[in-house]
Predict the 3D structure of the following.
Amino acid sequence: METFTLTTEFIRLDALLKVEAVASSGGEAKHLIQGGGVYLNGAPETQRGKKIRKGDLVEVYPDNAKQGAAPLASIRVE
């Protein structure tokens, strides 16, 4: 699990994926998020602009398959 240290009140979900190198571009982040493979605190999240705050856990799964699959990325925001 990676840790991201937040220096502002929040970061947008798509920006977090780019900063943490989970997505190489905004388009790739959009595809991952809207494709259903991104989970926020255990629940699917499809809003690119969702505000991520301290204490949140973001997980990205391959091929939108959470069950039985290890996450491609797991990011705890502090």
Summary: Helices lie at 13-19, 26-34. The chain has a mean pLDDT of 92. The two ends are 12 Å apart (CA to CA). The first strand starts at residue 2 and ends at 4.
